[in-house]
Amino acid sequence: MEILVVGSVAFDSVETPFGQGDEVLGGSATYFSTAASFFAGVRLVAVVGEDFPREHRDFLAARNIDLAGLQVAPGRTFRWKGRYGFDLNEAQTLETHLNVFEGFQPQLPENFRDSEVVFLANIDPELQLEVVRQVRRPRLIACDTMNFWIGGKREALVRTLREVDILVINEGETRQLAGEANLVKAARSVLALGPKTLVVKRGEYGVLVFTAHSIFSAPAYPLEEVFDPTGAGDTFAGGFIGHLAATGDFSEAGVRKATVFGSVMASFTVEDFSLNRLRRVTWAEIEERFRKFQALTSFEGLD
Q: Could you give the CA distance from residue 16 to residue 232 in angstroms, rounded to a whole number?
């Protein structure tokens, strides 16, 4: 199944204790699309400025990503600048220049409206809902959001969540959305808003997946070298949704396997700046790391 993703394409300038990247390719939809393209075809809807170079467009197109929905608007592409300390779980934002992204109005090409799997990356929930209204008969809708929208546009976000099957957010956002300190209680409150599945990203501590009847935990892959966590969450979502689209298995078992594939893809992203590691990774490496994830959580039952 083809995946429709709506989100941002950006230039990032990132500094970590282990190096830096200046004006590198980034954006939620970019990371998501690149990761998802290992599993299924992707239809990208986003906006860039006139300064967006041909080489980046060619890279995306070469990855089985349909760019018919990539708008080019007069002006400059969205830019973000941030810094990480040794605690790589949280970035300090230094600069944000929305540029053409500020006026972004997603318009789906006609054939994109038949997409069966939809991922609404982190954008204004009113725009997310507008995208949902443009899609004819989706089988699965998933979305991301952030603290800014939870605090500033809660009512619009709640309306969107009523249309969503899977919500993918981090631990702090889960607590904020629920108004509840305990994560398990917070997850139950979020599920009551509409999503059937809540995927809670916990950075170096892995992922928790909540449904009405179960909780599943997947670890983060233990790495000796982590250079840049930017885009790891979006890459996780790409691997996660990508595997669901590839298999068409939206069952609890299918979601659990997809969660591990999402974690696999995220573990590659943090090993280099921007999409550099995803540019080099092979399917053989993805399969090998999936098997290592299985070994991490394999244990004997009670006698």
A: 14
Domain CATH code at residue 206: 3.40.1190.20
| Position 302 in a domain | no
Between the CA of residue 234 and those of 180, 211, 242, 280, what are the distances in Å? 25, 21, 12, 18
Q: Which residues lie below 8 Å from residue 146, measured CB to CB, with a gap of 6+?
A: 122, 169, 173
pLDDT per residue of the chain (303 residues) written in tens, 0 to 9: 999 999 999 999 999 888 888 999 999 999 999 999 999 999 999 999 999 999 999 999 999 899 999 999 999 999 999 998 887 777 889 999 999 999 999 999 999 999 999 999 999 999 999 999 999 999 999 999 999 999 999 999 999 999 999 999 999 999 999 999 999 999 999 999 999 999 999 988 899 999 999 999 999 999 888 888 999 999 999 999 999 999 999 999 999 999 999 999 999 999 998 999 999 999 999 999 999 999 988 877 787
Number of domains making up the chain:
1
Instruction: Give the torsion through C-alpha atoms of 4, 219, 171, 30, to 10 deg.
Output: -30
Q: Is residue 207 situated within a structural domain?
A: yes
Q: Does residue 301 belong to any structural domain of this protein?
A: no
Q: Does any domain span residue 303?
A: no
Q: Which of 53, 62, 12, 6 is nearest to 232 (CA)?
A: 12
Q: What domain range includes position 99?
A: 3-296
